[in-house]
């Protein structure tokens, strides 16, 4: 009997206890419950209880409705009411334990599971749930005993599922080695099982096996497991396979799975929607809109406006994207993720001043700070001369992500005698860089699936002194959590090139160029300025430096930009067109993920043509791997920085590969990054104050090809002789910033 059959049997048995009037209401409530209409179902269950006060199953269903609605306080009260009246209700204790675990109430969860086992020691679910939380608490011997009893009481019918569940639980905790042990047992039992698995059940197991293998670095074996899973036919299984493939950067394979899903389920709006979403993520924007229209033709799509906003941003129509995201933010309320999307879109806009961008951020996120915890409520030891506990929240320790590129050298060098580092990893992408980061910190917790409350309680339990947000308003952030204050000192760094506007973030780490004295009104945070430049580029991968032979000075001068499309605003296009006009015979190489899409190439060609630029002077290139992308800088003589959203990582990568960058010093962090990097490199004469200066500098630097070639050949060596590229000193300076934040907290 499967779980659905068990639930249906429970419902049928429960109905036998009721009067005719209560049965009618109970059936209505169950129909609403199965449809996910939690509020309506809860109201009907309340009516059942008013007729049958001793009907424990209805009380349990009320608690379940409240959990599904996200009303944890009411659910806790409902469980208390149920278990006071019916202390022998196994499901009540079990599910109360699950709720406590998700809220980070470990002791209460453990007690609830033990009570469930005491009520019915022969129900395997209690033992497995207790095994899970014991492992979470590091009590592995006790957990092994409960795991054993779960298998005993589950019997042969449940053995495979129990091993499989434990594999999932262990992987969720980040314990891939133990997850593999359970997964192997599940696979072994499935081979011996007299009841053969369906193709889709087998595919689901292969998906989980592949996930575990990827975490263990068994890449080829994982790919084979994903390939076996692709024979599935159920839509949910295929979608899950595609999602996991995307996580591990298997973009083409994921898209092939979703295309097959559409072929198998052509009348499914969800199938077309998922394919559309994959096209957006891979910057195939025409195809994305086509699939979205197919989905909408079958059924209304609640996320359609958000997808169109994303497409607008990716084709460079940032003001349209901003308008759509603001509309969604208003519709969805103060905790809407669309508020972060609106904030990010504002950074690209030519239409907003720096102060307007700052004010918008404060307006969007001020409500998140209501009823936040106070600073004086924390009981951390306020000593100055002790090892500080620093927590880092990030989803982005994986290949090619800027957070990973810049943080790995810091993690490797930050003084471990002064700082005890704990990473709260909120991400889904996982590769060898994730493993490397894990090795470089004292503690690593996989918290992707944790609720904000669960994570807040863990951070308090870990006695974190300084919490460092590395996400800002990028994907998988935890701004709702941070706004409620979960550490005595909270700071933001690296993930977001602007003030967050989020209450209770005390500090933003910057430098004196991106955030000069006098710009304080643009920040909701206090500014902690590093002495040289805000980001130290010290790649741990060897990117061979181009030779730049004499022929480089004789080829047509090539300007270039490897920035993503939203940065190529109307202002930027006009500015770069003016540069091309000023430098006779020059070309412009534009490289971005969007330029795998012919519609994006066509759109930007038309924009430059409208500014008087012949299409023959333009070259568009799509995405490649990071090492190949770095090598392509050899084809660029001078890089052009976009405005108002400067290049960050791309500018530093260009410089590292011997390509100087023309930049304009704008009015806030996001538009002053280029000025920071070029000033730190000793190339202040490449920094413009106005558009006219920008064009003049580009023309001047392009005029003397021999001087330019000499600069290019020696640029990496020049950088390595500058303080801003001294990663050892940078790590020390970073540590000094953390100590200064703590000292100010202690002094208050």
Query: Averaging pLDDT over every residue, what do you get?
Result: 94
SS field, number of helical segments = 32
> What class, by secondary structure content?
alpha/beta
Q: Give the amount of beta strand, in percent.
A: 5-15%
The CATH architecture of the largest domain: Alpha Horseshoe
What's the N-to-C terminus distance?
Answer: 63 Å
What fold name stands as the CATH topology of the largest domain? Serine Threonine Protein Phosphatase 5, Tetratricopeptide repeat
Count the strands? Answer: 13
Give the C-level CATH assignment of the largest domain. Answer: Mainly Alpha
Low-confidence stretches: none
Question: What does the radius of gyration come to?
Answer: 29 Å
Tell me the overall shape.
globular
The CATH fourth-level homologous superfamily of the largest domain: Tetratricopeptide repeat domain
Q: Short description, anyone?
A:
With 748 residues, the protein is of the alpha/beta class. It is 57% helix and 8% strand.
């Amino acid at each position: 009997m499967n779980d659905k059959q068990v639930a249906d049997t429970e419902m049928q048995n429960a109905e036998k206890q009721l009067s005719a009037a209560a049965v009618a209401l109970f059936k209505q409530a169950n129909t609403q419950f199965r449809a996910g209409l939690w509020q309506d179902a809860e109201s009907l269950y309340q009516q059942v209880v008013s007729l049958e006060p001793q009907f424990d199953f209805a009380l349990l269903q009320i608690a379940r409705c409240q959990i599904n609605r996200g009303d944890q306080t009411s659910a806790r009260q409902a469980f208390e009411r149920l278990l006071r009246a019916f202390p022998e209700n196994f499901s009540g204790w079990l599910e109360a334990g699950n709720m406590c675990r998700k809220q980070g109430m470990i002791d209460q969860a453990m007690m609830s599971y033990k009570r469930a086992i005491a009520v019915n020691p022969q129900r395997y679910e209690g033992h497995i749930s207790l095994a899970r939380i014991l492992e979470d608490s590091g009590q592995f011997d006790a957990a092994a005993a409960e795991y054993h009893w779960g298998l005993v009481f589950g019997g042969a019918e449940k053995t495979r599922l129990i091993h499989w569940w434990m594999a999932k639980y262990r992987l969720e905790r980040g314990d891939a080695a133990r997850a593999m042990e359970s997964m192997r047992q599940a696979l072994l039992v499935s081979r011996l099982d007299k009841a053969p698995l369906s193709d889709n059940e087998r595919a689901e197991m292969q998906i989980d096996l592949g996930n575990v293998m990827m975490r263990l670095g068994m890449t080829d074996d994982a790919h084979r497991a994903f390939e076996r899973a692709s024979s599935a036919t159920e839509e949910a299984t295929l979608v899950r396979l595609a999602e996991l493939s995307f996580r591990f950067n298997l973009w083409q394979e994921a898209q092939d799975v979703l295309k097959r899903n559409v072929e198998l389920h052509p009348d499914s709006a969800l199938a077309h929607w998922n394919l559309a979403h994959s096209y957006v993520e891979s910057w195939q924007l025409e195809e994305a809109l086509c699939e979205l229209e197919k989905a909408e033709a079958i059924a209304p799509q609640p996320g359609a406006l958000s997808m169109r906003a994303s497409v607008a941003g990716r084709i460079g129509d940032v003001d349209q994207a901003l308008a759509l995201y603001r509309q969604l933010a208003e519709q969805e309320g103060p905790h809407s993720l669309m508020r972060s999307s609106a904030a990010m879109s504002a950074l690209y806009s030519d239409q907003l001043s720096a102060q307007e961008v700052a004010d918008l951020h404060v307006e969007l996120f001020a409500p998140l700070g209501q009823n936040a915890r106070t600073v004086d409520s924390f009981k951390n030891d306020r000593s100055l001369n002790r090892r500080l506990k620093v927590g880092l929240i990030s989803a982005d320790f994986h290949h090619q992500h800027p957070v990973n590129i810049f943080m790995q050298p810091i993690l490797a060098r930050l003084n471990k005698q002064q700082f005890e580092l704990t990473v709260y990893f909120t991400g889904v992408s996982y590769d060898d860089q994730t493993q490397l980061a894990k090795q470089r910190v004292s503690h690593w917790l996989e918290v992707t699936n944790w609720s904000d409350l669960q994570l807040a309680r863990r951070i308090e339990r870990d006695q974190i002194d300084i919490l460092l947000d590395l996400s800002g308003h990028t994907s998988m952030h935890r701004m709702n959590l941070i706004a409620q204050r979960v550490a005595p000192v909270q700071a933001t760094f690296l993930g977001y090139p602007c003030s967050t506007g989020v209450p209770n973030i005390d500090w933003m780490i910057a430098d004196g160029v991106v955030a000069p004295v006098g710009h304080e009104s643009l920040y909701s945070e206090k500014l902690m300025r590093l002495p040289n430049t805000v980001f130290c580029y010290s790649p741990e991968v060897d990117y061979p430096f181009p030779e730049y032979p004499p022929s480089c000075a004789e080829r047509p001068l090539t300007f270039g930009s490897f920035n993503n499309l939203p940065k190529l605003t109307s202002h930027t296009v006009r500015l770069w067109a003016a540069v091309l006009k000023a430098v006779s015979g020059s070309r412009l190489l534009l490289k971005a993920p969007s330029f795998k899409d012919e519609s994006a190439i066509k759109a930007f060609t038309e924009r430059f043509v409208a500014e008087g630029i012949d299409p023959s002077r333009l070259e568009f290139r799509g995405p490649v791997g990071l090492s190949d992308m770095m090598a392509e800088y050899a084809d660029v003589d001078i890089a052009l920085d976009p405005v108002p959203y400067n290049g960050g990582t791309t500018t530093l990568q260009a410089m590292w590969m011997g390509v100087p960058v023309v930049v304009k010093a704008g009015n806030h962090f996001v538009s002053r990054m280029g000025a920071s990097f070029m000033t730190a490199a000793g190339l202040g004469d490449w920094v413009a104050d106005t558009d006219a200066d920008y064009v003049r500098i580009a023309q001047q630097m392009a005029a003397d090809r021999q001087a330019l070639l000499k600069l290019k050949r020696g640029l990496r060596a020049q950088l390595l002789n500058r303080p801003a590229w001294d990663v050892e000193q940078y790590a020390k300076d970073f540590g000094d910033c953390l100590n200064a934040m703590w000292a100010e907290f202690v002094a208050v």
